[in-house]
Amino acid sequence: MKWIDESAGMEARLITGKSCVTRYISNIDFVATAKCGDIIEVCIKPYAIGNTSITFSATVKNKMAGLIAVVDRIVFVAVDEDGIPTSIK
Asked: How far apart are CA 20 and CA 33, in angstroms?
């Protein structure tokens, strides 16, 4: 979960050019486990862009064994220096 949040946060920063904070994470569907030594890939895809927020979906895959987890929605909000939501457009 930590890797999903960090990956989506980095993607939000790249897309908006602003500091972004996690606002919401939907249910996580864990379908398999990973073991020490597995190669894990976290894929983040933009889902929607609003005035102050950006929504992603995420998948986590074991490069050798397939799907590990799916998150339907992760919402990030762009904030200014005072932590107040700010426009991303």
From this structure: 29
DSSP per-residue letters across the chain: -HHHHHHHHHHHHHHHSS-EEEEEE--EEE-S---TT--EEEEEEEEEE-SSEEEEEEEEEETTTEEEEEEEEEEEEEB-TTS-B----
**Residue 40 near residue 68, CB atoms below 8 Å:** yes
- Tens digits of residue pLDDT in 56-77: 999 999 999 999 999 999 999 9
Domain range enclosing 62: 2-78
The CATH number given to whatever domain includes residue 15 is 3.10.129.10
Residue with tokens 């397939």: 66
> Which pLDDT does position 89 carry in this prediction?
78
